[in-house]
Specification:
alpha/beta, D-Maltodextrin-Binding Protein, domain 2, 9-stranded mixed beta sheet, 14 helices, disordered N terminus, binds pantoate
Length: about 325
């Protein structure tokens, strides 16, 4: 290197140091707008923070995550559409509207499909889950990993629930998800599919009696402030997904892609850890906050499984019965 060049580089570095700027800050950072429906203190917020932390560490701070929690960029469907057109880079979403983009994801929304969290994680992390993730590349998205919310439970302001008869005519909000809608119709409820940002005000105004979500959501959103009864129905497992825009993904170097993948994998560990914790202490928290909480007994659960059974005919038609059976058979 010529004397002149090396001294001007030294001079530049000294100027940056003098201005209090490290080499990292001097580099242009790529902004990653990440939108999600829940607060920073939720399982989504914890996962998004971990994702950011790992990407930052792996890339020397080349990316700046700009967080839009609490539906700051709109409902989940709008955010996914934003990813498709490239105005939003990343999101963490429930399976609520995913089957509108990749219909095959709906198979995981079938009620009473998974025995427990371990069973669901084994299926999602195995070949069945992987096969569905890759399908997102066909619709302007890139799916990095399956996350998790937990098992969904019913909350409402009308009555405690012990039998399918207790949900008869119940105005219950479902996600914009045809599999869930079919299940509640079959149970004789009056389901209303609704985007999440409208749910709290609809509960406050009595437009709907209830909704269903996992403990992770019920606790972090403080649904106890607008709902009296919680029935631990565990009627369906609620997966989540870490997605990025396909155009954003294709613009990344291989090393940056690896950083995003590593970050997503660690974010899932953090999210599942959060779910494990809230499954342990969430009920006590909600009781302390004044909710009337009851769990379906094993017998009562069987009554719900039997009542929802007719919906399985349409699930078998829509998703391969062999696939549903192989999910059930996964250890
Ligand atoms: O019920 C829903 O729509 C989802 O579970 C939520 C709360 C938006 C989290 O993804």
């Amino acid at each position: 290197m010529s004397k002149l060049l090396s001294s001007s580089l030294l001079c530049g570095a000294a100027t940056l140091a003098g201005l209090g700027l490290g080499a990292t800050a001097a580099l242009a950072q790529t902004e990653v707008k990440i939108g999600y429906a829940l607060a920073p203190e939720s399982h989504y917020g914890v996962a998004a923070a971990k994702w950011e932390e790992v990407v930052e560490a792996e890339t020397g701070g080349a990316f700046e995550f700009k967080h839009f929690p609490s539906s700051g960029l709109g409902g989940e469907r709008e955010v996914i559409e934003g990813l498709q057109i490239g105005t939003i880079e990343a999101t963490i979403v429930s399976s609520g509207t995913l089957s509108n983009f990749v219909p095959e994801t709906g198979v995981f929304d079938i009620p009473f499909l998974f025995r427990d969290l371990g069973h669901a994680r084994a299926v999602l992390d195995g070949p069945i889950g992987e096969e569905i993730l890759v399908k997102f590349d066909d619709v302007g998205l890139h799916a990095l990993a399956w996350g998790e919310q937990g098992f969904r439970h019913i909350t409402n302001n009308r009555n405690q629930i012990a039998s399918p008869g207790d949900v008869e005519g119940l105005k219950i909000r479902t996600m914009e998800n045809p599999v869930h809608l079919k299940a509640f119709e079959t149970l004789g409820a009056a389901p209303t599919p609704m985007a999440w940002p409208e749910v709290i005000s609809s509960l406050q105004q009595g437009v709907i009696d209830g909704q269903e979500n996992p403990l992770s959501v019920i606790v972090s959103v403080k649904l106890d402030e607008v709902q009296k009864y919680l029935t631990l129905s565990g009627h369906v497992y609620s997966p989540a997904m870490l997605l990025v825009s396909k155009s954003f993904w294709e613009g990344l170097s291989d090393a940056d892609k690896a950083a995003f993948e590593k970050g997503a994998a660690e974010a899932v560990v953090a999210m599942r850890g959060f779910v494990d914790d809230v499954e342990e202490d969430g009920v006590a928290t909600l009781k302390e906050r004044g909710m009337d909480v009851a769990a379906l007994s094993a017998e009562q659960k069987v009554a719900f499984q039997e009542a929802v059974q007719p919906a399985y005919e349409s699930y078998y038609e829509q998703y391969d019965k062999a696939l549903i059976d192989s999910i059930i058979a996964t250890e």
